[in-house]
Amino acid sequence: GAGVSQSPSNKVTEKGKDVELRCDPISGHTALYWYRQRLGQGLEFLIYFQGNSAPDKSGLPSDRFSAERTGESVSTLTIQRTQQEDSAVYLCASSLAASQPQHFGDGTRLSIL
Amino acid sequence: KNQVEQSPQSLIILEGKNCTLQCNYTVSPFSNLRWYKQDTGRGPVSLTIMTFSENTKSNRRYTATLDADTKQSSLHITASQLSDSASYICVVSLDSNYQLIWGAGTKLIIKP
User: Fold this and answer.
1) Mean of the per-residue pLDDT values of chain A
2) Cβ of A67: how many Cβ atoms within 10 Å?
3) CA distance B73 to B25
4) What are the tens digits of pLDDT across the range B39-94?
5) Residue A1's pLDDT is what?
6) How far is it, in rounded angstroms, from Cα B18 to Cα B59?
7) How far apart are CA B25 and CA B33, in angstroms?
8) B47-to-A45, A56, A86, B38, B76 alpha-carbon distances in Å
């Protein structure tokens, strides 16, 4: 497809486990973003990639969160030692450039038991 | 503190009616203002982007306005349809452009 693809669409895991979320951006989009959206709340910025580098990681809530991007394409967001407060929808977006509209995937709904 | 506030929190209107959603922001340095539509369980979809110099911008039945002096924006929806039921989110971009301040959204419900 031509849109941003995220997997898995849903993830249920036990507290303390590690999880890895994947984002396939639109081909040719150099900018990639990760957001967190808690139920009924606005989007919370996590990290921004320009190409494969992350000039802004300021939104990552703790050192349990990390993200990488390879080949100016796929990105993974990893959460280690998950806690119940990590339960949320994690959204990925990409854009041609930072000034251009962001195109979003449908997110990964993460539930920590 | 950079903030985007939207009102009302939620709104119910009958199909075919018009409505206006409001957005107030305190964001500096301002680059542009964006409106997104988010259907339940889906990612947000861009409706419009407005720069400092643009006062009005239309996209089909959506008309956005921006008053940079009062730091207010509105999104007007004309002749609402059932498919317009969604959350409408106001987003303000900082100078860097990638840094976006997101409002909590207005949940719009269109009833037949």
Assistant:
1) 93
2) 21
3) 8
4) 998 999 999 999 888 999 998 999 999 999 999 999 999 999 999 999 999 999 88
5) 52
6) 15
7) 10
8) 20, 26, 29, 10, 12
> Whole-angstrom Cα distance, residue B66 to residue B35?
11
Amino acid identity, residue A27? S
User: CA angle A41-A43-A45, nearest 5°?
Assistant: 140
Best of B39, B98, B101, B102 to disrupt the A interface (most A CBs within 10 Å) is B98
The count of residues in chain B is: 112
pLDDT computed for residue B99 by the predictor: 83
- Measured torsion, CA atoms of residues B21, B22, B28, B33, in degrees rounded to the nearest 10: 30
Residue A42 C-alpha, separation from nearest chain B C-alpha, in angstroms? 4
**Which residue among A41, A103, A106 places its CB closest to the CB of B41?**
A106
